[in-house]
Amino acid sequence: MTLSPAMPPLDILLCSPRGFCAGVDRAIQIVELALEKYGPPIYVRHEIVHNRFVVDDLKSKGAIFVENLDEIPDTKQPVIFSAHGVAKSVPEAAAARDLFQLDATCPLVTKVHREAEIHFRKGRHIVLIGHAGHPEVVGTMGQLPDGAVSLVETVADARHLKPHAADGLAWITQTTLSVDDTAVIVKILTERFPRIVGPHKDDICYATTNRQEAVKRVAGKVDAMIIVGAPNSSNSQRLREVAARAGCKIATLVQRASDIDWPAHEGIRRLGVSAGASAPEVLVEEVIDAFARHFSINVEIVTTAEESVAFNLPRQLREAAE
């Protein structure tokens, strides 16, 4: 009888916190409860969160995803705005058509919108640190008239920014940025414009910060790091970058276990695993199960923070939730 060779050992350091944040959880609940209360179809403008698995699951239940309101027929069914937020013109256009709106914008994104409006009312020009084209940035810039916001994406942008009036500036940020990269940009802005006004509390959200800190704790101790998340998820991409900068030589972003590059992981003995804020735990379990088919695994949870944040649902759905 021929014995099968023993699988090589693998220690998996599983980051905690990881995966869904309160804003993502709330957004998904809004779609699910709307489907339960009003029945399908439910229309959602843009992906409710940046995760194909989540979007496909909601599609199977009757959610229809669109990029523009003009793709939605005249209907009394709910129209939901994604967790990333939208420009002011979007709810205005929906109201003009008498569409039934439910806003799933993360409250921490809404906080940034309100900050921008307050700065604008005080006569300040706003410097938004973020990534061009990201739905959250489009929504934030769309809170104010054209020209009221200057977008800064990089250190070079910060160094070359030429505002009309250096004394009347304020900075805000996208909520899902690299904490370290943003700190460098803010330092440059404050050195160049000493009177620039910042937020009372950091705009980068608690979940982004906590997940990056957990990855930093683990990345220098492992041979490889897997981040579960979508390629269009800003916070997931930032986790991969954080892992690489913290010393992990093999740091990859995967949507599903089927995306794992097995040759790249041959011979590893320690693996770090985390997930972006829009990645469900079932996908993390799928990745761990896949490694268990190639290695004899031992899983250790590395906890750097406890999270207990929860956000209220829209009034129209609270009864359905209860």
What does this structure look like?
With 322 residues, the chain is of the alpha/beta class. It folds into 3 domains: 9-20 and 206-303, Cobalt-precorrin-4 Transmethylase, domain 1 (3-Layer(aba) Sandwich); 22-106 and 310-321, 3-Layer(aba) Sandwich (Rossmann fold), CATH 3.40.50; 108-192, 4-hydroxy-3-methylbut-2-enyl diphosphate reductase, catalytic domain (Cobalt-precorrin-4 Transmethylase, domain 1). The chain is built from 11 helices and 12 strands. The chain has helices at 22-38, 52-61, 89-96, 107-121, 135-141, 155-160, 179-192, 206-219, 234-245, 281-292, 315-321; strands at 9-16, 42-45, 63-66, 78-81, 100-103, 125-129, 149-152, 169-173, 224-228, 250-254, 270-275, 296-303. Strands 10-9-11-1-12 form a 5-stranded parallel sheet, with helices on both faces. Helix 4 (107-121) runs parallel beside helix 5 and helix 8 runs parallel beside helix 9 (234-245). The chain is flat and about 70 Å long.
